[in-house]
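Subject: Re: docking follow-up (S-adenosylmethionine)

Dear J.,

Thanks for your patience while I sorted out the input files. As discussed at Tuesday's group meeting, I've set up the holo structure prediction with S-adenosylmethionine included as the bound ligand rather than trying to dock it afterwards. The sequence and the ligand SMILES I used are pasted below, so you can double-check that they match what you have on your end before we go further.
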Amino acid sequence: MRMVPSLNVPQRYGQIYRKHLLSKGALDLRYRIQKHSNGTVTLPLVPSSLPQLDLSSLQCSVAHGSRCEIVQIQAQPSKKGKSKYCSEKLVEAVQDQLSSHGVSWNEDLKSDLPQSWQRHGDLVVIGEDCFTLPAWKNIGTELWSTVAHGLGAKRLAQIKRISNDGFRTPLVIMLLGDSSHVTHLDNKIRYEFDITKCMFSFGNITEKLRIASFNCSGETVVDLYAGIGYFTLPYLVHAGAAHVYACEWNPDAVKALKRNLQLNRVSDRCTVHQGDNRQLPLEDLADRVNLGLIPSSEEGWPVACRLLRRDTGGVLHIHQNVSSAVPSTDARLQPALPAADGHITTEGEDKTQVSLNASLGSHRDREAWRTWAEDTATRFAELLRDLTGQVWRTHIMHIECVKSYAPHIHHIVLDLKCTPL
Ligand SMILES: C[S@@+](CC[C@H](N)C(=O)[O-])C[C@H]1O[C@@H](n2cnc3c(N)ncnc32)[C@H](O)[C@@H]1O
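The structure tokens for the complex came back this morning:
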């Protein structure tokens, strides 16, 4: 089932938040508002409205004293959403064009239209799972002007897939327009990049907003997989990090990263390390390390341990795609034991209290996340012990579900506090 970003608010403030989001065009009418047994409601959000949402000012201006947070929730289509899932304008435009080429409209053609797309200013990127039927070939390249027009864009591109070249380079082809250079503004941060050379993940927006809400003043942060600065920039612009070391080995991404640091006037607080982060000549300096690589950042775990401050330790943000498609009788779902000479804690030493942003995911999903988090906490205690010869306490602070990747596979982030004892 599809996960959608939603605003979670106390039920008594539900109506007032609903009206506000509606007036801003930020309520996603394709999905239902859901009530939860803990006295909250979730209001589905239009993904493109997320960058403009400022939670602290919402809390003050919409309902003073209320609390709200962005969560990912399993979508339930609304009645309206079912019928309006495709842009009507796009349907009308392509329908006319097909009929002028003697092709009559049918439901197969309708379901072969893009169901979602990414917008970067005047450029729209569609996925590869559309326009697959031979009938579209009759129209030729005019089709792309019609589609762009129907989607309110001037340029059109299609993402084939993210390649496994280690750089996560997207295989993107331009269908309409010459330049593949885009500018993207979100949460007051400006990103510029070439969509055919660098990836930009819209799905990470909730994590980026979460980072923006951290208070990192005085901290030294290392972003091991910086890309074009998707997480590096919120650390600098909003979280107020004293210094960020940003590591990236894709030369195109490094070029965009450096440009984006300048555009956002934070270059003086960032050192870019171009190359393989496993060769990074730094150690014992980080208060925080961001490990934003999926499906797994495991290859960077020893590097993160080396980077952490030896005197105070620090916090790791460890990204991972976790699958819960395992039988619950599997041994992996048994509680992990602390390492023999390390110490793992979860919030309040009570496993049920681990903070998860999870009215989200099924019980089985959450169990799998917790098991992975406990295994990872054990592993880090061992890595840190082997590296330093000291005993370390690793403490699961929070597990954040960023998005669902496939049924029962979620991109999660573990916030792990590591302290030398
Ligand atoms: C998921 S992508 C980018 C994530 C980034 N936070 C973003 O959304 O812009 C991961 C990035 O890590 C880089 N990368 C992967 N392995 C690396 C390594 N060993 N050293 C340095 N960079 C690496 C890739 O080139 C890619 O740009």
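A couple of observations from a first look. DSSP finds eleven helices and 19 strands in the chain. Residues 86-179 form a domain with the GMP Synthetase; Chain A, domain 3 fold (CATH 3.30.300).

Let me know if you'd like me to rerun anything.

Best regards,
T.
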